[in-house]
Amino acid sequence: MSRQELAGYTYGTTAVVPSPVSLEEFALLKQSVGFGDADEQALRRAGAVLGDQIEAILDVWLAPVVATPFLATYYSRSNGQLDPEYFTVVRQRFGQWIRDTCLRPYDQDWLNYQHEIGLRHHRTKKNQTDQAQTTPHIPLRYMIASIAPISLTIKPFLAAKGHRPEEVEQMYQAWCKSVCLQVALWSQPYAREGDF
Asked: Does some domain include residue 83?
């Protein structure tokens, strides 16, 4: 499936509003997590390593979510039943998020799309992209808590292609920094005016 065929994937289009975080503020945020050019290069290598493992990664991440009732509600209709169409398209975009994390330049388009992702988890825009009828808001605490499973489970996948341990570690550290950076950006819609 090409990016053009991925439902609701609007990266780099006019459908995505500009991030309220300036490039200068973004640069400071990158400094705060120690994210630099070497990390972007390590993520490019990680993208090559992870590319054919994305479905397996998503299985590891999403199986526990679906099996945990209070988390599954965010993919479920008001009757408590999982919305399979919504879950499928969100899963596909999650796979694209892995590619974007590794392979996209961390520029204005990338920054804008992080804001879009935050909006799509917040009541501001949850469900609108897919006209879904699932729980209309994901609390910030679960966004922050997602850092652990998305980070701690990736290392075996990064090591799966026989890279030297130090190369795996570089990719892993870059991944962890990027995930922290992104979750920080996703939290912006949840912050009160002046608090972000």
From this structure: yes
Whole-number Å distance between alpha carbons of 102 and 96? 10
| Residues of the domain holding 30 | 20-190
Identify whether 151 is part of a domain: yes
Any alpha helices (H) in 11-162, and if so which ranges?
A: 23-33, 37-50, 54-67, 69-72, 84-103, 108-121, 140-145, 147-152, 155-158
Torsion sign across C-alpha atoms 171, 196, 128, 16: negative
Could you tell me how many helices (H) and strands (E) the chain has, helices first? 10, 0
| 5 within a domain of the structure (yes/no) | no
Token pair in block for residue 113: 């799309």
CA distance linking residue 138 with residue 38, whole number of Å: 33
Predicted TM-score (pTM) of this structure: 0.95
- Is 196 contained in some domain? no
Count the domains in the chain. Answer: 1
The pLDDT value recorded for residue 3 is 52
Is 185:21 a contact under the CB 8 Å cutoff?
yes
**What is the DSSP-derived secondary structure letter of residue 174?**
H
Give the CATH number, domain containing residue 143. Answer: 1.10.490.10
Q: What does the pLDDT look like over 101-160, one tens digit per residue?
A: 999 999 999 999 999 999 999 999 999 999 999 999 999 999 999 999 999 999 999 999
- Rounded Cα distance between 2 and 35, Å, is 29
